[in-house]
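fold description:
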Amino acid sequence: METSTEGAAEAPSSDTVRAEAPGTGPASADVPVTVEPAAAAPAVDAGGTTERVAIAPATLSPSRASDFMQCPLLYRFRVIDRLPEKPSEAATRGTLVHAVLERLFDAPAAERTAPRAKSLIPGQWDRLRETRPEVVELFEDDPEGERLARWLGEAEQLVERWFTLEDPTRLEPAERELFVQAELDSGLMLRGIIDRVDVAPTGEVRIVDYKTGKAPRPEYAEGALFQMKFYALVVWRLKNVVPRRLQLVYLGSGDVLTYDPVLADLERVERKLLALWEAIRQATESGDWRPRPTKLCGWCDHQEHCPEFGGTPPPYPLPVRAGG
């Protein structure tokens, strides 16, 4: 549910990207765009107007780590400048489907059926519109409701496909939409939201993530697993337990990708994240956020501010280190 992991030649993932902070339910936790919670703080000017004041990033989530690896300037636009992004049908559909799959487990095991899951879609869509009113604009030019009906039908298909991949009547998740946060020895704070955590009677942990897009090609599988290894690292740091299995469930293509990590995997991810955070720290202090053009740029909301498209970034809102 984070950033695209299918390479520069692929369109961005159709999965939702979620806020990396605790919420009160699926609609509050799943939003089309996320920013680091520490990226800005409210301030009140002399006239009493509340503004957002940029501060240096203090935490790292899988989505923001992927942003920086994809394009440092994109990271700046999202975390430092907090530029708005329009909701998309694909990401919002992912949000809706995630909410339905979470809520289904509120029902007794025998009642977790495909018809019941699909019946949850209208109510979760209503809730999403209430908590994220900006998604209403997606269908403002659809007075007859034809596109909306088709879009909701596509969500139903994704939910129904899930039942061919997993059997929820045999699952009792230990956690759903679990907010996790851990501080590394270096002081770096990692945080994120895990779709589902299963714990076997023997104590073995499985981390599960739903994707409403298609599975990546084999050569991009490692990139797809980055998010899951990130979560596994956080769980290991919190519980001193290496998850037994990482599982990506791709509803768009009907594939399940699994990986069984070992401690060395998590140690490598930690070293990678520390190096990444050092690069972010240097860019924050110097103000030097360089674009990294790829074919994914065609889907970026910030072309008007990007030098690669003839745009000019907003004035840098943080102080620049002398000589940076």
About this structure: The longest strand covers residues 189-199. The radius of gyration is 20 Å. Confidence is low (pLDDT under 50) at residues 1-50.
